[in-house]
C-alpha cells in the first residue's frame, strides 16, 4: 500500500524555523520524485520544492529560494523540507506527493501519482 505521511508542522514566530518530514512507503523510492506543495484555505495548491531520487536534482519555487532546503534520506525513505526565516505568508497546509519521473533540474512535475494528508504550518507576525 502506498503511503506518504507528512509531519513536523506547527506554530512558529516570523523568522523561526521548522523541519517537515515526508515518510514514504509502498513504491520503489529511487524511481520517484518527491514534491512539497502548500495550500491556503480557499486557494489552489502551490508547488514549493521537489527532489529527484534518481539523480538528486532539486528545484524550488522563487518564493522560497534561499530559505527552504529539500533533502532525501534513501535509507529511511524520507524526504525533508527545512524551512528557515519563515514569514507569515508561508502559513498553509503543506503536502508531500510522489511522481514516477527522472531529473527535475529544469522544473518540478506538475502532476503527481500519490499524495499525502498534509501538515499545518502557521507563522505568526
Q: Your description of this structure?
A:
There is one protein chain. The chain has strands at 3-7, 11-13, 18-25, 32-39, 45-52, 58-60, 68-73, 78-83, 92-100, 114-115, 119-124. The N and C termini lie far apart (40 Å). It is 0% helix and 51% strand. The relative contact order is 0.32. With 125 residues, it is mainly beta. The strands form 2 sheets. Strands 2, 4, 5, 6, 9, 10 and 11 form a 7-stranded mixed sheet that branches.
* H-E order: EEEEEEEEEEE
Rounded to an integer in angstroms, the radius of gyration calculated over CA atoms is 13 Å
* Beta strand count: 11
Task: Characterize the biggest β-sheet.
Answer: 7 strands, mixed
Structural class based on helices, strands and sheet pairing: mainly beta
Distance between the termini: 40 Å
Oligomer: single chain
Number of helices: 0
Helical fraction: under 10%
Globally, the shape reads: globular
Low-confidence stretches: none
Mean pLDDT: 97
Instruction: Report the portion of residues in β strands.
Output: over 45%
What's the quick description here?
The chain is mostly beta strands and 125 residues long. It has no helices and eleven strands.
Question: Could you name the key traits of this structure?
Answer:
125 residues; mainly beta; seven-stranded mixed sheet; four-stranded antiparallel sheet; 11 strands; 0% helix; 51% strand
Amino acid at each position: 500500500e502506498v503511503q506518504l505521511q507528512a509531519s513536523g508542522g506547527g506554530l512558529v514566530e516570523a523568522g523561526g524555523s521548522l523541519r517537515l518530514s515526508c515518510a514514504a512507503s509502498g513504491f520503489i523510492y529511487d524511481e520517484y520524485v518527491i514534491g512539497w506543495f502548500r495550500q491556503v484555505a480557499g486557494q489552489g495548491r502551490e508547488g514549493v520544492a521537489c527532489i529527484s531520487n534518481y539523480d538528486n536534482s532539486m528545484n524550488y519555487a522563487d518564493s522560497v529560494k534561499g530559505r527552504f532546503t529539500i533533502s532525501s534520506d534513501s535509507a529511511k525513505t524520507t524526504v525533508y523540507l527545512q524551512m528557515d526565516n519563515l514569514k507569515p505568508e508561508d502559513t498553509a497546509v503543506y503536502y508531500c506527493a510522489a511522481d514516477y519521473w527522472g531529473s527535475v533540474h529544469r522544473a518540478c512535475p506538475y502532476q503527481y501519482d500519490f499524495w499525502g494528508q498534509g501538515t499545518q504550518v502557521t507563522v505568526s507576525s
